[in-house]
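Suppose you are handed a protein chain with no further information: no name, no annotation, nothing but its sequence. What can you learn? This example shows the usual starting point.
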Amino acid sequence: MNDLDIKQLKVLHLLLRESNVSKVAHILGISQQAVSEHLRKLRNTFGDQLFIRKSNGLIATPFAESLATEVGRIINSIEKLVEPKEFNPATVKSIFRICATDYAQAVVLPKFLASIRSQAPNLKVIVQDIEIDNLSNLMDRGDIDLVISFPRFLPQKYPMATLFTENHKCVVNKKHPRANEIWSIEDVAKHPQLIVSPKRANLVGSADDYFEERGYKRNIVMTLPFFSSTADCVASTDLLAFLPSKLLTHSNLHKVKCDIDLPSFDVVIAWHQRSDKDQLNKWIRSKLLDLAY
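A reasonable first move is to predict its three-dimensional structure. Written in structure tokens, the prediction is:
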């Protein structure tokens, strides 16, 4: 019995139904010789002739007929097992875990959560801060289902999709004495600056290379781990900062007029390969990609 496989059961099921080798071969898209070979193996496995040839087809032996109901049940169960399941978000009662930067929590999640609440009211969503150094372990263990972040924070081995492209804007307190002036790149480089450094607590910013390539070193005097508090800090000090454009909702910030065009950056989602075909994960990803940010 260890030699019995699904292909052989399928052949047996169809031979019991059709009683004709050529018809079975046509249904399965294989040769009559292949059907006969499967039948030979079935006979060896069961120790019975199973079918007797006649002029216009086959006649099942009593033993083969006794197998018909059970073989049909097995084939039906296998077909149900592999057929696509209809996904209905309204009936989902799962827990979905999202790891996101504080930027994504502020810009992406409000619209996303509002859109899924009406369609999947019983879905429970757990959002946690991104753990950059531990992200790979969390994804490999299945502790998180989806990440919303910037590409540079993500291991490149995981599938990704881009939600949108973002740009930095140079801002100061709107009451800054030079708020309405035109700043040169040298003016900006020399001015005390605040940066966001979520990966490492240091005075190294993502725009440093841009300035160094043009012969300038930034005067970074303060660093924060999160974007959420940056606008308030800039608005209450004389500091300058480069902030993502979608976070510029603070009424006390002023965009600096300067000829500085920092490279844009993508906001992406990432997931583990094992979730490629997962229906809930696919639905969540499609909702995120469909939203206009």
